[in-house]
């Protein structure tokens, strides 16, 4: 990494997000799923808005942008957090973390349906392998299958994340003039509205007095949502999104270990093997199959460099004809043309 401190940040982020399933399980001792989601969102929004204020960042008033934010907030925050709370009423926190690890698979799948994701053989193989791991976890061929309404709710949360990420990639990336931290704060504000609308479902009951449960939801909102978002954006800013995304491999491990150590949860060998296969599938779907651009050769005092000095080189069709150069110069010019063509294609890629 460019900054060794980001190893620590990545570990903290994995701990915060991996422990969120444990915290939800503890919070259910005093609050309903919608109460947990609302509290988490409000506290996370407060932290993010405060960070924006400290950095002098202002929220946008663009209505079109807010409409996109509202969709992202529904599928990327409010809906999955309610579903996780509903699911963990019957599902262990460790298994919830394993099911959450399928999110990148759903993201790739919905990206394919939306026409925004290429599907080279390695990525297709990773997708199929990952869903085979999910099938192994559920084991529908066994009488005591894990496939019940709670598991379906947790899986639905991962599916919702996948829809949200694809939508964000299509509508909230690019040049909109706002830093990611501001967009995150806006997303949490919009998610607050959805959580309030969902509150009548099961959130009007009295909140139980359980100090551990109340502390758990406070930690979940302040640290697991607000602070974790800020850490994630710091890593993305310094190391890139690819490095930051490695937290997806650490989260299920953290959730399984915490559930085993603190709640006495146990996952069978089949579920652990399924988790490993899912993570391997996720790794394959994230492999880049695009060749790296070839660096342009160093300009020297030869016949090619003399001709290049007299002609613009910003476009490949303006380079000197290959037929006028020597064999060595033709080879080097072909590499240069290839690298420029790659750069033009990459700069106009729809996912940029």
Automatic annotation (TrEMBL):
Subcellular localization(s) per the UniProt record: Membrane
EamA domain span: 13-138, 149-285
Residue ranges with Polar residues bias: 305-314
Top-level taxon of the source organism: Bacteria
Coiled-coil regions listed: none
Transmembrane segments: 12-31, 37-57, 69-87, 93-114, 126-143, 149-168, 180-199, 211-231, 243-261, 267-285
Region of interest called Disordered, as start-end residue ranges on this chain: 291-316
Record's keyword terms, sorted: Membrane, Transmembrane, Transmembrane helix
Cited Gene3D superfamilies: 1.10.3730.20
Membrane topology of this protein: Multi-pass membrane protein
Gene Ontology CC annotations of this record: membrane
Predominant subcellular localization, coarse grouping: membrane
SUPFAM superfamilies, per database record: Multidrug resistance efflux transporter EmrE
Signal peptide: none
Family under the similarity heading: Belongs to the EamA transporter family.
Name of the protein: DMT family transporter
């Amino acid at each position: 990494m460019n900054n060794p401190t980001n190893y620590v940040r990545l570990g903290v982020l994995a701990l915060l997000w991996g422990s969120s399933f444990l915290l939800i399980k503890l919070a259910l001792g005093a609050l309903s799923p919608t109460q947990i989601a609302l509290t988490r969102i409000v506290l996370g929004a407060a932290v993010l808005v405060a960070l924006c204020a400290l950095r002098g960042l202002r929220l946008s008033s663009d209505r079109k942008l807010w409409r996109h934010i509202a969709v992202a907030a529904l599928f990327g925050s409010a809906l999955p957090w309610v579903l996780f709370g509903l699911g963990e009423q019957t599902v262990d926190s460790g298994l919830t973390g394993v099911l959450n690890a399928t999110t990148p698979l759903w993201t790739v799948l919905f990206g394919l349906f939306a026409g925004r994701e290429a599907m080279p053989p390695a990525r297709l193989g990773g997708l199929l392998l990952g869903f085979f791991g999910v099938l192994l976890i559920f084991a529908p061929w066994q009488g005591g299958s894990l496939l019940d309404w709670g598991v379906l709710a947790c899986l639905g949360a991962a599916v919702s994340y996948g829809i949200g990420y694809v939508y964000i990639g299509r509508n909230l990336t690019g040049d909109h003039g706002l830093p990611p931290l501001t967009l995150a704060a806006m997303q949490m504000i919009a998610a607050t509205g959805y959580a309030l609308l969902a509150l009548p479902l099961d959130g009007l009951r009295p909140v139980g007095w359980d100090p551990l449960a109340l502390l758990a939801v406070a930690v979940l909102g302040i640290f697991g949502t607000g602070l974790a978002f800020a850490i994630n954006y710091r890593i993305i800013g310094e190391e890139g999104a690819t490095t930051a995304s490695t937290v997806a491999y650490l989260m299920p491990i953290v959730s399984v270990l915490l559930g085993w150590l603190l709640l006495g949860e146990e996952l069978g060998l089949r579920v652990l093997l399924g988790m490993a296969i899912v993570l391997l599938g996720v790794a394959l779907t994230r492999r880049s199959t695009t060749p790296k651009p070839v660096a342009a050769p160093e300009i020297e005092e030869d016949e090619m460099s003399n001709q290049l000095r007299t002609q613009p080189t910003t476009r490949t069709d303006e380079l000197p004809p290959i037929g006028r150069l020597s064999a060595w110069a033709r080879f080097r010019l072909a590499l240069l043309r290839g690298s420029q063509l790659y750069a033009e294609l990459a700069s106009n890629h729809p996912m940029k």
